[in-house]
Amino acid sequence: MRIELTLNGQRVCADMPADATLYELLRAQGMKSVKCGCETTNCGLCTVHLNGRPVLSCSQLAARCAGAEVVTLEGLQDEAQLLAQCLADEGAEQCGFCSPGLVMNVLAMARELRSPTPEQVDRYLAGNLCRCTGYMSQRRAIAKYLKMREEGAR
C-alpha cells in the first residue's frame, strides 16, 4: 500500500503493508528516535506528533496517517535542545531510552499550555514509563525548562 505523508516537513511516499503501523513506517524511513518498547500503548517510547498532537505511533495504522503531518524528535532538534540540557543538568537521563517519548510529550505540552501546573505535567508524563529515574529528576528538569522557556519568551 502506498502511503504519502509529510514527515518532519518533507513529503514522503512509502510502500507499506496494509496493516503496518505508523511506528513501522517511521522506522522504515530511518527515524531512530521512535522506539518501540511494548507494542501495547503502555510505555510512550513511540510518541510522535501527528497533526500537532502527541500520539503513540505503535497504535496508529500507517494507512490512516495518509496526508497527515508527522513530526518526530529528528524534526524538533532545535526546539528540544533546551529541554535536553535541563534533563542532563538534573540527572534525568540515566539510560536515555525513554527520553525521545518524554521530550515529544513535554514539547507538545509546552505548546498547548502556557504555564502548566504540576498536575498537568503529571498528566502529560502519565504515558511515559521510565525504569531508571523515579520521575523526580524529570519533574525538576521539566520545571526548569518551562521556567527558562518562559523567561526567554519575555
From TrEMBL:
Record InterPro entries: 2Fe-2S-bd, 2Fe-2S-bd_dom_sf, 2Fe-2S_ferredoxin-like_sf, 2Fe-2S_ferredoxin-type, Beta-grasp_dom_sf, Diverse_Oxidoreductases
UniProt-listed Pfam families: Fer2, Fer2_2
Residue ranges of domain 2Fe-2S ferredoxin-type in the record: 1-76
MF GO annotations: 2 iron, 2 sulfur cluster binding; metal ion binding; oxidoreductase activity
Sorted UniProt keywords: 2Fe-2S, Iron, Iron-sulfur, Metal-binding
Name of the protein: (2Fe-2S)-binding protein
Lineage: Bacteria, Bacillati, Bacillota, Clostridia, Eubacteriales
